[in-house]
Amino acid sequence: MNTPLPSVYDLILDASLSSLWIQILHNDTTCVAQCWQSDHRATEVLASALGHACLQLGIAPKAFRRIAIANGPGSFTGIRLALATAAGLRRAGGAAVGVFGTLHLLAQDVFLQTQSTKPIHIITPAQRGFVHYQAFQAENGRIIPRSSVDLCAYEDLAGRCGEDCVYGYGMDRHPMFAKGGYCLLCALGQPRAEAYHMCARDAIYSEQDAEPCYVRQCDAYANLDLLAKRQGMDAQLAKERFARLQTMPPHSLC
∠ CA(223), CA(227), CA(232), 5° rounding? Predict the structure, then answer.
């Protein structure tokens, strides 16, 4: 008599882009794939949408074995909310948590569409005229990063990418795109469920909370000179104090 395989559920969450993606896999097969669009990046519906999906499957949210999260770069609020949700579910049910980069996800989706063997250059909008940039290459059907995630001036893309095609997500919101665009830019839409599945398979899981991927300074630091002046403080002393605070170990105030 054959012993039935255990019923295993995995969760994939992505709130780093302009939509919310929820994907649930049962024994490594997708059984739920939902994309939520909203003027507020749909993050306000994450808890209710996930709860409803679990209800339809007849499982508790704490039943997940693994949770994979797109950790950016992207929407600050969306990424933090998805990571906080994963942290809560990990504590409730003991799920392992893993992350994959948002630019890696977009590159994986490009490869699924094109099967290209050429370098894949991915960009998404950042602030102050910059873009998030990362280069990838397909090897044996897998997407391998060829550079780290970096901030790049939009006008410098040609120097990095040459005549290779550049793939951009959300670049219609970028000020340089509005001035005429980039001649080799291919617009990307919502990644496919298969791309999420492949990225989740390659994620490294652990029993620890996951961290976001940010590549630019926070607005508060960028404006520290002005903020310090308004508070009657010396800008250089404020920066030195900020640097010390970043290296201090956490401690409880209770």
Answer: 150
| pLDDT exceeds cutoff 50 at 109 | yes
At 175, list the tokens: 């000020």
Please report, for residues 26, 120, 122, 133, 134, the alpha-carbon distance to residue 154 in angstroms, rounded to integers and kept in the order given: 42, 17, 12, 10, 13
181/166 Cα distance (integer angstroms): 11
What's the pLDDT tens digit per position in 47-71?
999 999 999 999 999 999 999 999 9
Task: Extract the tokens encoding 45.
Answer: 């519906």
What is the CATH class of 103-188?
alpha beta
Which helix H or strand E contains 245, and what residues bound it? helix 235-247
For 3-39, the pLDDT digits (tens) are: 555 679 999 999 999 899 999 999 999 999 999 987 6
Amino acid of residue 45: V
- Asked if 105 and 122 touch (Cβ cutoff 8 Å), the reply is no
CATH of 9-101+191-206, one of 3.60.10.10, 3.30.420.40, 3.90.220.20, 1.25.10.10: 3.30.420.40
Task: Enter the pTM of the model.
Answer: 0.83
